[in-house]
Amino acid sequence: VADPDRACHHHNFAASVAVNRIAEDGQAPTGYVADIRVACADCDEPFRFSDAPAGLSFAHPAVSVDETELHAPIRPASSDPDFGLGLPGFAVRYRDGGDLG
Ligand SMILES: [Zn+2]
Question: Which residues have C-beta under 5 Å from ligand 1, the single-atom ion?
């Protein structure tokens, strides 16, 4: 049990992975994505994934806006390297006020 008066050194972790299959009803899947979250099992603090763009892509890993969920496109080991690359995604970019107008 975490002591709220002492900083947690994060020794134990809880991770969740949800693997989603991208497919129309009854059709072969056109992509797969693993959504990964990690938190300290002692104090429940979520961990952020560093240095990945915010958004959702089937071409490269991306993170949720709060960086606590990694969306990682995956493919069966036997598939071609370009599997799933034709699927649409989106990106979230930060713009400071200087770019407006
Ligand atoms: Zn902790």
Answer: 8, 10, 40, 42-43
